[in-house]
Specification:
Helix content: 10-25%
Structural class: alpha+beta
Number of strands: 30
Strand order of the largest sheet: 2-13-16-15-14-17
Number of helices: 4
Radius of gyration: 41 Å
Shape: elongated
C-alpha cells in the first residue's frame, strides 16, 4: 500500500529573461558595412591610377648634309717631286714650311736615326689606353664608334710619321744631299691633302642633287708624287664658320619655318651643337642651312655628315595625355587674399551687404606671377559674388575667368585638381614642369582618365 507524499513541492518553470549581446550587434554592423562596401566597389566605376615619374621626351629627325666651308686650293709653284712637312689637319701659318719640291724621289727611313720604333713607349701606352677604353665601353648598336677609334689611331700614326719625315727633311737640307726647294703656307688655315671638287662651291650654289653621295669621289695627295707647275697640292680651311646643307620635306619646313636656332647631334661622335638655321626654297626644292661657328676642325675631313635635328628635348614629369582635363577658374588679384581671424587659413572677404565682410576659406589652384592673379574655384562661390579688398572698401566682382589644364591628384583617396604647365609632348605623353607649388611632384598618383573623375569624389 503506497501512501501519497502530501509534502512534495509544486515546481513551476519560468521563461528566461532575454540577454543583450553587444558583440553580435557590432558584428552585424560590420557585416552590413562590408556588404555595402563590396556592393559599392563592384557596382562603381573604378579609377585607374597612374604614378607620376620624372621623364623626358626627345624628338629628333635624321638627315645627311653637305658641308660648305671657306676652302682655298694651293697649286704647285714648280715641277718636281712633292713631300709634305705638316701633318694633315694641323694649323699652319704664313711662315710655316708646308712642302718641298725635289728633282728626284726622296728615300725616307721607317725608323728614327737611333733605330727605335716610330712610336715611343709613352705614345704606344697612350694608344693602347684608347683601345682598351673603347673595348670596355663599346656598344654594338653604335658601330660608328669603331670608325672614331680608327680615326684617332690614324691621326696618331700620321702625326708621328709626319714628325719623322719632317726631321729627315731637315736633315737632308742640312747635309745638302739633294736639291730641295722649301715652300711656305700661302696663308693661315687648317691644311688638308685631299680634293673633292666642292672646294669652290658656295652655300647659295648648292642644289638638292649635290646632297647625294652616289657619285662622290675624293682625290688624295701623296708624298713623293710627281707634280707639274699649277697642279693642286693641298687646300687650306681658312675659317671656323661652316654650313651644313640638308634637304627638307614640306611638312618639316612648315614645322621649322619660325626657327632661327636648332640643336644638332652629330652621329659620328654623338656631340651636340647649336646652329643658326635658315630655310631657302629654289628650283622646286626646300633646303635647310645650318651654320656653325665652332667645331669645324672635328669634321674637317668630312664632306657629308650624318646628323639628328633635335626639335624637342625636355625633361620634367611625364604624364599620360588621357589624364589631362580643362577647368575654368575665377582670376582674382592677389591682394584680395587674406588670412581669416586667428587662423592661418587662406581666404577672401565676401561682400555680404553688411558693414563687416564675411571671411571665406578658399583653395588657391594657381598663381599667375606675371599678372599677379590667383585662380579660385567658381564652385565655392554663389553667383554675382563680390570680394572686398582687405583694409579697404574696394570691391572686386567675380566675373573674369580663365581655363587651366590640369589633372586629378588622388594621393589622399579623393580627387583634387592640380594645375600643369606643359613643356612638350609625344603621341601619348606630356612632359610637364616640376617644382611648381600648385602642381605635381614626383611619385604623385593621378587619375589615368581625368574625364571620368568627379572633383572631390572618393576614389576607389
Amino acid at each position: 500500500m503506497i501512501l501519497a507524499d502530501h509534502n512534495l513541492t509544486n515546481i513551476q518553470t519560468y521563461r528566461r529573461r532575454p540577454h543583450f549581446n553587444i558583440g553580435i550587434v557590432i558584428f552585424g554592423i560590420i557585416l552590413i558595412y562590408l556588404i555595402i562596401t563590396v556592393f559599392t566597389y563592384f557596382t562603381s566605376k573604378h579609377v585607374s591610377v597612374y604614378e607620376v615619374r620624372e621623364g623626358a621626351i626627345l624628338r629628333d629627325t635624321a638627315y645627311t648634309g653637305l658641308i660648305i666651308r671657306n676652302e682655298q686650293i694651293i697649286a704647285s709653284e714648280a715641277d718636281g717631286y712633292v713631300n709634305y712637312f705638316s701633318p694633315e689637319g694641323s694649323k699652319v701659318g704664313a711662315r710655316t714650311d708646308v712642302y718641298t719640291l725635289s728633282n728626284e724621289k726622296l728615300n725616307f727611313r721607317e725608323t728614327g736615326s737611333d733605330g727605335q720604333a716610330v712610336l715611343s713607349a709613352d705614345e704606344q701606352a697612350a694608344l693602347l689606353l684608347k683601345i682598351q677604353s673603347f673595348s670596355e665601353n663599346s656598344d654594338d648598336a653604335q658601330f660608328r664608334d669603331v670608325y672614331t677609334l680608327k680615326d684617332n689611331i690614324n691621326n696618331v700614326l700620321e702625326s708621328k710619321s709626319s714628325q719623322s719625315r719632317q726631321a729627315q727633311l731637315k736633315e737632308m737640307l742640312a747635309q745638302n744631299q739633294t736639291r730641295l726647294n722649301v715652300y711656305k703656307a700661302a696663308s693661315d688655315g687648317i691644311i688638308l691633302y685631299s680634293l673633292d671638287g666642292f672646294e669652290n662651291v658656295t652655300a647659295e650654289e648648292v642644289t638638292e642633287a649635290m646632297l647625294s653621295k652616289e657619285n662622290y669621289k675624293v682625290e688624295t695627295m701623296a708624298n713623293n708624287a710627281s707634280v707639274k707647275t699649277g697642279a693642286p697640292l693641298y687646300k687650306l680651311i681658312t675659317s671656323d664658320t661652316w654650313t651644313l646643307v640638308i634637304s627638307l620635306s614640306e611638312d618639316a619646313a612648315k614645322e621649322m619655318e619660325k626657327m632661327n636656332r636648332v640643336k644638332v647631334k652629330f652621329s659620328k661622335d654623338n656631340q651636340t651643337e647649336r646652329a643658326d638655321f635658315e630655310i631657302r626654297r629654289a628650283s622646286g626644292s626646300t633646303l635647310g642651312f645650318l651654320t656653325f661657328h665652332s667645331s669645324m676642325i672635328r669634321y674637317m675631313k668630312e664632306r657629308y655628315l650624318d646628323i639628328e635635328l633635335i626639335l624637342e628635348d625636355e625633361s620634367g614629369l611625364k604624364i599620360p595625355k588621357s589624364s589631362v582635363i580643362n577647368k575654368k577658374f575665377y582670376t582674382v588679384p592677389r591682394d584680395y587674399l587674406t588670412q581669416g581671424g586667428n587662423s592661418k587659413d587662406t581666404g577672401v572677404l565676401v561682400d555680404n551687404g553688411k558693414d563687416t565682410a564675411e571671411f571665406k576659406k578658399v583653395d588657391v589652384y594657381y598663381w599667375d606671377q606675371e599678372n599677379d592673379t590667383m585662380y579660385l574655384d567658381p564652385q565655392v562661390f554663389d553667383e554675382n559674388t563680390a570680394l572686398v579688398r582687405p583694409e579697404s572698401t574696394e570691391t572686386y566682382p567675380l566675373k573674369a575667368t580663365k581655363v587651366l589644364k590640369g589633372v586629378y591628384n588622388i594621393n589622399k583617396g579623393y580627387a583634387v585638381f592640380k594645375q600643369i604647365e606643359i613643356l612638350c609632348e609625344s603621341d601619348e605623353y606630356y612632359i610637364v614642369k616640376a617644382g611648381n607649388d600648385y602642381s605635381l611632384t614626383n611619385y604623385d598618383h593621378i587619375a589615368l582618365d581625368g574625364g571620368t573623375v568627379i572633383e572631390n569624389s572618393v576614389v576607389f
